[in-house]
Q: What sequence folds into this?
């Protein structure tokens, strides 16, 4: 592959370049060869597949989506029965994947941040324990961890009758984790609405405060005010609607618990495995991000008289986040992709629903391409976010 | 933080010893564990947690445990039942490989570990290493497969356990490396068609979970091949792992290529080197050296990721362990068995990551 970026304009005045030595023509030939090879490979695979499908008389196409699925799904966010279509079953799978990824990411970020800070602690014991945790978790395959937690739920925990109760209202047994939740009350609806309104208000308040600070130099106590708005308004609503505090406590009836919120062993094992595994990686990222901000920055900020909170908010975090966020998003994506291992422990995520569908309909090509499309969609979303974020925080160099 | 206690003792005497709490282990404890209220509380909480967790664990794992008993004796006691490991060790490590031929995969594994240890020393990184590796891998394959030099042939369906795990990851890495370099070069190329093909491949593979590729290898690869051609399940899984790893290596190598300054490219061009000479003699040696530590990182994750072939029912070490656990005699001792497998993985991955960290330091200085 001979190719140079200094164009052929330099030499052709004196002598004509031989046809095959012209970098431009060579480059075109190489590209045509590449495209032909890829095309031929594709054609070869396609014809083989087509012949094989015809010989085995497998019909292709997504027609099966509208047919009755006739298999049950253990847990679902929307109502689903085996009489529903494959399309709906697949949608249930996607929702389950999103559910585990969303909850998992939230807990992972919090736990990972704590571990990362603990790793940097001046307390020797805390720092070493965090180091041991990070090293051990990173070096054991996630699938093994999932199997371990799954067997933890099934082999080690007692049956519901002897359920462990580590905290009042939380029961752990081989049927999963059951915990008390507040009984539904109409006031909660208003509280959610007020909460969202509070978030929006805080956003505009922040914009206004920034503008004012730029104009007048006065600093608005933004953090306190927005916290008061976001948390205070729902609290006030709650108090005004008579402070409903009735709890839905799980009770042992027969062989299992009734009431409360139930987390199945499959979901529990998957969430626990994913969170504990990914948190170790997040901790390393957070540690590296904090260490990336040099000590001089803190000292300079102190020298111009900023308060500790301001130093953290205005100097350290903006710089540390620039280092932390890109690898952090890729870890979030990893968690989402690893959630596909649910198929090994029987949690009905998207991959596991697709695999059941393939087994029943034999539509392997469609099934596997659907898996790929869905995960590609997730990673595309993530990279779109990353590009937007990178542009937003990119260093403005003079 | 605490003011010097000897402050009121103003007289300065040459030979005065430091106060006992300022030296040795006590000073260390003060500085590292109790410097401040928060840290003291943290230390106490941590010590309490350790006290709650460690002694019961030691009691379970070592004091009350069974090492070479039958499953029945284990069930009677309440300690750890490590007996599950020695009782089934040969199946866990070698899978369905014929019992009397176990020395062959064992020898192959020892060879592989020996080769890896030989590679550790950077003085051995010469061209001859490539030939040593190629012949080593060939001999390992021969040992596993047999059929030559009077060795009984063993069908690859019977391969399993730890040798399979090692082979999938090391062969995968060795085969994926050149492919990854080509992809990285293609992605950096100025030819739009080549570049697009490489970008699509890399992003497509990196965007999907490995398990979807493994499904593809198990279900779709047979459809892709012409009639009458069948490829062994292990080879198909290996192909999927190679495809997957290559995309990740490509990204790492691209990072290395980007780190090489423009001057190097220009210098090579001004010497009149053509593209392949330029890359082979100037750019790649430098770029690949930079990316050695992240490459070891990829080897580690490839090693961990081979465990996923469980899902397409290949008998690698995790699957053999689970098969052992489904034996009614040993059912319920999953914790012990998983801890054993986890320890194997941990030892391998930890030594690799430790090595990569050391290498990073050496290469930096």
A:
């Amino acid at each position: 592959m001979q190719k140079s970026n200094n164009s052929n304009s330099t030499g052709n005045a004196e002598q004509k370049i031989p046809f095959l030595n012209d970098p431009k023509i060579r480059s075109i030939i190489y590209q045509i060869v590449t495209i032909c090879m890829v095309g031929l490979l594709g054609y070869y695979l396609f014809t083989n597949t087509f012949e094989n499908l015809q010989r085995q008389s497998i019909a292709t196409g997504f027609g099966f989506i509208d047919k009755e699925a006739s298999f049950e799904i253990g847990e679902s966010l929307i109502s689903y029965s085996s009489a529903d279509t494959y399309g709906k079953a697949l949608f249930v799978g996607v929702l389950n994947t999103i559910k585990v990824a969303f909850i998992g990411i939230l807990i992972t970020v919090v736990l990972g941040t704590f571990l990362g800070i603990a790793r940097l602690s001046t307390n020797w014991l805390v720092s070493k324990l965090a180091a041991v945790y990070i090293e051990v978790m990173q070096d054991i395959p996630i699938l093994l961890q999932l199997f371990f937690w799954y067997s933890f739920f099934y082999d080690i925990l007692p049956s519901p009758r002897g359920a462990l109760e580590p905290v009042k209202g939380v029961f752990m047994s081989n049927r999963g984790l059951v915990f008390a939740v507040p009984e539904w009350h109409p006031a909660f609806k208003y509280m959610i609405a007020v909460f969202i309104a509070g978030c929006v208000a805080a956003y505009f308040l922040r914009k206004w405060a920034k503008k004012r600070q730029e104009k007048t130099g006065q600093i608005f106590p933004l953090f306190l005010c927005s916290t008061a708005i976001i948390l205070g308004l729902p609290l006030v609503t709650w108090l005004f609607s008579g402070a409903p505090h009735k709890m839905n406590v799980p009770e042992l009836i027969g062989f299992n618990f009734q009431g409360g919120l139930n987390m199945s062993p499959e979901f529990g094992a998957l969430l626990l495995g994913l969170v504990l595994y990914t948190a170790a990686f997040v901790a390393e990222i957070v540690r590296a991000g904090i260490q990336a901000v040099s000590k001089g920055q803190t000292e300079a900020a102190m020298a111009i008289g900023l308060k500790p909170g301001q130093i953290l908010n205005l100097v350290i975090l903006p710089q540390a986040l620039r280092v932390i966020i890109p690898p952090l998003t890729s870890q979030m994506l990893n968690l989402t992709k690893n959630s596909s291992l649910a198929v090994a422990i029987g949690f009905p995520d998207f991959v596991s629903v697709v695999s059941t569908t393939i087994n029943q309909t034999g539509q392997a090509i469609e099934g596997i391409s659907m898996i790929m499309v869905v995960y590609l969609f997730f990673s595309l979303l993530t990279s779109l976010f990353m590009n937007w974020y990178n542009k937003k925080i990119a260093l403005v160099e003079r | 933080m605490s003011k010097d206690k000897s402050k009121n003792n103003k007289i300065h005497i040459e030979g005065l010893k430091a106060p006992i709490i300022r030296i040795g282990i006590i000073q260390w404890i003060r500085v590292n564990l109790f410097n401040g209220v928060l840290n003291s509380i943290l230390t106490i909480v941590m010590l309490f947690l350790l006290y709650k967790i460690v002694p019961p664990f030691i009691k379970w794992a070592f004091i009350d445990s069974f090492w070479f008993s039958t499953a029945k004796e284990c069930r009677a006691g309440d300690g750890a039942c490590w007996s599950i490991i020695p009782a089934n060790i040969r199946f866990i490590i070698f899978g369905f490989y014929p019992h009397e031929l176990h020395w062959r995969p064992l020898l192959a594994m020892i060879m592989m570990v020996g080769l890896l240890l030989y590679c550790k020393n950077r003085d051995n990184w010469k061209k001859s290493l490539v030939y040593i590796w190629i012949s080593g891998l060939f001999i390992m394959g021969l040992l596993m497969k047999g059929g030559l030099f009077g060795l009984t042939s063993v069908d690859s369906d019977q391969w399993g356990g730890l040798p399979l795990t090692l082979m999938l990851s090391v062969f995968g890495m060795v085969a994926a490396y050149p492919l990854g370099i080509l992809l990285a070069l293609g992605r950096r190329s100025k030819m739009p068609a080549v570049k697009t093909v490489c970008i699509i491949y890399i992003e497509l593979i990196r965007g999907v979970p490995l398990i979807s590729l493994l499904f593809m290898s198990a279900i779709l690869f047979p459809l892709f091949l012409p009639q009458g051609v069948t490829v062994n399940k292990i080879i198909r899984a290996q192909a999927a792992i190679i495809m997957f790893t290559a995309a990740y290596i490509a990204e790492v190598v691209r990072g290395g290529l980007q780190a090489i300054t423009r001057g190097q490219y220009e210098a090579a061009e001004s010497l009149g080197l053509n593209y392949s000479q330029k890359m082979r003699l100037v750019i790649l040696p430098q770029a690949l050296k930079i990316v050695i530590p992240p490459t070891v990182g990829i080897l580690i994750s490839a090693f961990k990721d081979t465990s996923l072939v469980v899902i397409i029912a290949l008998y690698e070490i995790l699957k053999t362990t689970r098969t052992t656990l489904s034996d009614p005699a040993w059912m319920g001792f999953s914790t012990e068995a998983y801890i054993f497998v986890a320890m194997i993985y941990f030892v391998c991955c930890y030594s690799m990551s430790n090595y990569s960290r050391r290498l990073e330091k050496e290469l930096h200085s």
Q: What stands out?
A: The first helix of chain B runs from residue 24 to 33. The mean pLDDT of chain B is 82. The radius of gyration of chain B is 28 Å.
